Amino acid sequence: MKQTAKNILGVTAIVLLSAGVAGVTTYKLLKKERPAVFSELFEQNPNNVRLTAYQATGNQPIDLTQAAETSVHAVVHIRATQLGKTQTVQTPDIFDFFFGDGRGQQRQVQTQPRVGFGSGVIISKDGYIVTNNHVVEGADEIAVKLNDERELKGRVIGTDAATDLALLKIEGDDFPTLPIGDSDALKVGEWVLAVGNPFNLNSTVTAGIVSAKARAIGGAAANGQGANIQSFIQTDAAINSGNSGGALVNAKGELVGINAMLYSPTGAYSGYGFAIPTSIMTKIVADLKQFGTVQRVLLGIECVDLNIGLAVNEENQGIKEIRDKAKELNIQEGLWIRRVVEGGSSAGILQENDVLTAIDGKKIHRFADLQEELAKHRPGDKVKVTVLRDKKEKTLEVTLKNEQGTTKVVKNAGMEILGAAFRPVTTETKRQLNLGYGLEVTGVTDGKMAEAGIRKGFIILKANGQQMKTVEDLETAMKEAQKSPEQALFITGMFPSGKRAMYAVDLSQE
């Protein structure tokens, strides 16, 4: 009978071990009510797999209740609303194809309001909140609901589509916060919590482990700066629609990531969730607060992962070449440099056929590792780059440059630097000049427009080849131009007299 009881209790313990935190109560109950069985199962078998799976340190079970309780107060519900708008739809005719003047029929279309939901994390007592860019992108109104049911108006401080991060602000003080932990210190297999508002269910907590680090999803550029930063923490903590922007929390109750997406064939949780590590988030938030835009750097190389050649069973020439290089060097990871960009950060320092293995002492196993390291730096920062050259290890210092090939900090210059006011051309002006669209310059003061020679009354038809129908079109073209090496707007248009003109507007900031 004693043996049967022990077996039953042993099975119970094993079953509840798989339930994570829920097993803590049974663990304690077993120790109190059946000390002999407890001793045989655990204390007399320190290497028992049930014990090692169950406890954290000091013969104590993993307890995530404190981390959960702290986190839910600092995670907020976000409602982002895009208001309905009246849009002009242009139906082009054959003249537009030849002359580009936008002749054709027009009609007004009223769009419906759109409402999206997500989560956010309060990171400072004065109300700064981190969330995903896709949660608030295009929103006209943002409402932030706290765990205590207070609802406050949020405003966007800055956004970054490349990392899918956004920084918001609510007015007030002494808000509950989450301490920011070190995502670099996370280990695969470590327990984490995902805290958010899936399906509009406030303050939901799910538990899981870190499944992988520096996980890349989809394609990325091979120059040290892809279209998107691809270095996620992968977790099996359940992440669903509405969790975006919520907190990934370690067992200490520290923020280690911002939940960004799930990977699922059905659109609902199926075991794969991804979070942006705080190692990237911290720098992005600091840039948005200080400069209004993210300071990005390029290493100035084109490279390929050596481990691709070993992991992919393909026999095409490109894969075979990578595999042969890995075998020649007798290494299985690192970035094989195929080209050094002229005028870039690494020009004259790194060489073609170098294999990049570390930055500032941190191993670079794959391209995602390089992206994560570069995302932590600003133009002008110096890094120690370790490479294999002719089978010998070298450590070289590289001064990082931005997309424009300089070490200058880029500031988020708004439309005010143009020193001009704009409005879509009136119906009467369209009729008189036979135009389908255009932006009229209604006033010019000191600024970039005046420096370029643009005067009041000028009608902008295109900027950098894009049709200008609204002020938002010009703002978008300007932001894209600021990221380019030229940092210029090439504007074509006409005056009310019918005279056409072209101007180059220099957007660089000294």
Write the layout of secondary structure elements.
Blueprint: H1 2-17, H2 23-33, H3 35-43, H4 49-54, H5 65-74, E1 75-82, E2 86-92, H6 94-99, E3 104-110, E4 114-122, E5 128-131, H7 133-136, E6 141-145, E7 151-160, E8 165-170, E9 191-196, E10 204-215, E11 232-235, E12 247-250, E13 255-262, E14 273-277, H8 278-291, E15 301-305, H9 306-311, H10 317-329, E16 335-340, E17 355-359, E18 362-363, H11 367-374, E19 382-389, E20 392-399, E21 420-424, H12 427-433, E22 439-444, H13 448-452, E23 459-463, E24 466-467, H14 471-483, E25 488-494, E26 500-506
Antiparallel strand pairs: 1-4, 1-6, 2-3, 4-5, 5-8, 6-7, 7-8, 9-10, 9-12, 10-11, 11-14, 12-13, 13-14, 15-16, 16-17, 17-18, 17-19, 19-20, 21-22, 22-23, 23-24, 23-25, 25-26
Distance between the termini: 86 Å
Shape: globular
Number of helices: 14
Helix content: 25-40%
CA radius of gyration: 28 Å
Instruction: Quickly give the structural class.
Output: alpha+beta
Strands in their spatial order, largest beta sheet: 1-4-5-8-7-6
The parts where pLDDT drops under 50 for at least 5 residues are 1-25, 46-60, 219-227
Report the sheet with the most strands, covering strand number, pairing sense and barrel closure: 6 strands, antiparallel, barrel
- Strand tally, please? 26
Strand content: 25-35%
**Mean pLDDT across every amino acid position:** 81
